[in-house]
């Protein structure tokens, strides 16, 4: 998710290569961030539900409703929008093409108190 500026930014899920994933939050122009990196090979062959729950005091990332990361500092307090990208940022000569991204559905909601 992105704001009207470069930061803050929340990565619900980002692939670094075909096996490594990160979930992260960037909050300053000098790239200060919080992230968790994990081996995602068990998530490659099926559809999965990647989510982030964003409240005024914390961010909670989940995969298939299992908590993966919780952040309680530097929480964005401004509106943000969703951005889906399958951009390539590295050498593509290692047989990683063609690449693909499939999204079955997206749900955004505001929690009620």
Describe the structure.
It is globular and about 45 Å long. It is an all-beta fold and 113 residues long. The chain is built from no helices and six strands. The chain has a domain at 9-71. The strands form two sheets. It has a three-stranded antiparallel sheet, with no helix packed on it. The chain has strands at 9-15, 20-26, 33-39, 50-55, 58-63, 66-71. A hairpin with a 4-residue loop joins strand 1 (9-15) and strand 2.
Portion in beta strands: 25-35%
Number of strands: 6
Helix and strand string, N-terminal first? EEEEEE
Low-pLDDT parts are: none
**Compute the gyration radius: what is it?**
15 Å
Order of the strands making up the biggest sheet: 1-2-3
Number of helices: 0
Largest sheet: 3 strands, antiparallel
Distance between the termini: 23 Å
The share of residues in helices is under 10%
Structural class: mainly beta
Average pLDDT confidence is 81
Global morphology: globular
């Amino acid at each position: 998710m992105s704001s009207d500026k470069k930061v803050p930014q929340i990565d619900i899920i980002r692939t670094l290569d075909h096996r490594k994933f990160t979930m992260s939050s960037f909050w300053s122009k000098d790239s200060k961030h919080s992230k968790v990196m994990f081996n995602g090979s068990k998530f490659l062959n099926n559809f999965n539900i990647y989510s982030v729950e964003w409240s005024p005091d914390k961010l909670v990332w989940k995969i298939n409703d299992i908590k993966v990361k919780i952040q309680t500092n530097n929480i964005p307090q401004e509106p943000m929008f969703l951005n889906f990208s399958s951009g390539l940022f590295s050498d593509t000569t290692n047989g990683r093409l063609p690449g693909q991204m499939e999204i079955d559905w997206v749900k955004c909601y505001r929690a009620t108190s």
